[in-house]
């Protein structure tokens, strides 16, 4: 769909629908008030009758509002004005897009992007409106013989900014939002694609296409090359499957200094996880196609970064294979040797993600990275700890964890800093090898992170356990595209710091209610 940025008065918009906000106190926003004045109190009269109370996410569609040029006005509830923050802005925007989908409006102008959200500027408002809109409109109909009817598609959305002088900031926000949304779409498409299609070879081809489209470098290693590197833990997981394992490397050199230390993202790429010999229960096993959510997020983030042309050097590493039971499969009690030379007693073959990641983390050392972040649908224990709201965040550097958590807060893709204390390492002891691959049920997400930490001592490292946030079950089943927004924001922050710019979080924006000269253009 098409997006535009515009500064202009709502009553002058000759369009199918104009979107404005109402607070829970029935207070009109500036744009809604202008429409109310030109219509001789039509909107406030509707509100007085009780048809719209302004509750967050509520909507009311009005037709033929007097003396306006638009066909419809969509009122969107904003909740309590004093509580209107970033989360509420996103929720109101999402509600507006959903409501538009129930109308015949092919085009709309939204004045929600003119609202004031504390500590956020115009660029952020437009970026988030774009990301939320495209996320809400996302559909995955690739494998349907007949696509679902979703009403008339929204073809064009114009996002209003308060002043003409805000247009440049709005355009920057739009460009960022489109890139982030495209990265999320790639991650969601990969996650939703069935495991018989999205194989390790499919992920490798996706990486090659990314490299070709955006001028990056790529390398894909097969079984023999992986074996030559000594990645015994990775290959042990892959040995039960008929599909060939792949180790994907993508390199983007965007920094002014090509030799600047890169940031490295590592994504778990188990394209289907049966659990191996430690077979999972049959119920819900179809969702194990999402076990490559870390790989999908890393590829989606890489796409967004190279499209935005961030001035950083970035490496993406994806170890990818299937975890299947067979006569060749890894067995409980087997001992494997990792690329780092450390031996691992495999007590449960369903704790396979850490086995492929540990070799990738060792491989990452060759880049002398500024920092390494691995992303993985690693443990059900993380879902028990944090539910489906926050990603589990672990790190050997508190400052890195703080930066990642802050980036997530900025874009509504939250992560929670979890402990990584030495006492938990005791649970990984093995009488027969250097370590076991599980530490028992207590603190399962923590001990999984502790396992990975043993292979990340050479650099600053963080681990994102996205088991609870990478996809949704039930009627809304599907990939979420998380944590692409978090990672992109983190990398943008790093780029800003490298250029000597202030990280934009907390930068005050001008208040749209301070001046009324904003609506001087059509």
UniProtKB/TrEMBL annotation:
Residues 502-522 are annotated as: Disordered. It is found in: Cytoplasm. It holds the Pfam family Peptidase_M17. Mn(2+) 1 binds at residues 273, 350, 352. The active site is at 280, 354. Residues 509-522 have a biased composition (Basic and acidic residues). Its EC number is 3.4.11.1, 3.4.11.10. GO terms for biological process: proteolysis. Binds 2 manganese ions per subunit. It is an enzyme of class 3 (hydrolase). This is Probable cytosol aminopeptidase. The lineage of its organism: Bacteria, Pseudomonadati, Pseudomonadota, Betaproteobacteria, Neisseriales. The gene is pepA.
